Amino acid sequence: MTQPAILLCGHGSRDVEAITEFEALAGHISRHLPERKVMHGFLEFARPTIGERLDDLRNGGATDILAVPGMLFAAGHAKNDIPSVLNDYAASHDGFSIRYGRELAVDIKLLAAARERIAAAEAEAGDAVSRADTLLVVVGRGTNDPDANSNVSKVARMLWEGMGFGWTETCYSGVAQPLVADALERVVRLGFRRIIVFPYFLFTGILVKRIYSAADVVAEAHPEIEVIKASYLNDHPLVIDAFLERLEEIPAGENLMNCQLCKYREQIIGYEKDKGAAQVGHHHHVEGIGTDADHDHGHHHHHHGQDDDA
Asked: What pTM was computed for the model?
């Protein structure tokens, strides 16, 4: 019996580096599963689109697909936009099965990878400042889904307690509050000698670069405070292991997202109107339009709950 093919579903980005890193992740997974056909596609901006990759897999003879969202948390993209594309495609092609996995979520492997990224930044900066005198800033993407946003807070809390920092602050690159610049302006007043800014992101992109720029601005304005920029997760071996686990969950029937606090299933405070919303995509206008390598900078602007990183 032929093993199901694998499709990694990325958000997509205008940033070429972000796309390159996502492609590298697909390559890592393919090397771990040499007997499987592994492909990747994007929801918006970059090509191939998810639909184009499904065409490639079907034309290559695949009839059974395991699809996973290349995303840390389940907000609108993982819950609505990607399933909408997959469901529409499956409904339009008889005999073609697509089984969808869950997001990476708050995972022990990812926490360990995050710890290593932060510790590496500390090691590079030296041990002149103790963790008790260090404040950790964990930056999430920011969405209009409170469940996804709260997961960033949980990650920050677990890293803070587990690593022994003096304090932590959670902030977001967009949509959710507090935003990065506001949070950094607040934490510099708390009296810590060192601040570590850690983007809890899978890949680089426009948002991560903005986060690092905001850290640079604060460092320049407050030379008395050491501001360190930790690397995002990227292709850490434990991140790859987590993706492989998500793929193993699908045939076992363990690919269930957290629905207890999902605003589409329950009347979450402040989001009551979203309960029962139709599962439809919102990215047709930017699907496959290209990255900054394909267009002059600034000609394509797109703003929504999770912005535009891979």
From this structure: 0.86
How does DSSP assign 211-257, residue by residue? HHHHHHHHHHH-TTSEEEE----TT-HHHHHHHHHHHHHHHHT----
Q: Where are the domains of the chain?
A: 5-105+236-286, 108-229
53-73: pLDDT as tens digits: 999 999 999 999 999 999 999
Residue 23 to residue 27: CA distance in whole angstroms: 6
Q: Name the DSSP letter for residue 289.
A: -
Q: Is 285 exposed, middle or buried (0-12, 13-18, 19+ CB in 10 A)?
A: exposed
Measure CA 157 to chain center: 18
Query: Strands 167-172 and 134-140: what pairing?
Result: parallel
Pair 11, 77: CB distance under 8 Å? yes
The identity of residue 34, as a single letter, is P
Per-residue DSSP letter, 308: T
Pick the CATH number of 108-229 from 3.40.50.720, 3.40.50.1400, 1.10.357.10, 3.40.50.10170: 3.40.50.1400
Binned at pLDDT 50, 70 and 90, residue 280 comes out as low
CA distance 182 to 89: 42
Phi, then psi, of 114 in degrees rounded to 5: -60, -45
What integer pLDDT is reported at residue 57 of this predicted model?
A: 98
Dist CA 273 CA 267 (whole Å): 8
Average pLDDT, the chain: 89
Residue 288: its pLDDT value, please?
67
Pick the CATH number of 5-105+236-286 from 1.10.1670.10, 2.40.10.270, 3.40.50.1400, 3.50.50.60: 3.40.50.1400
Reported as a pLDDT band with limits 50, 70 and 90, residue 76 is confident
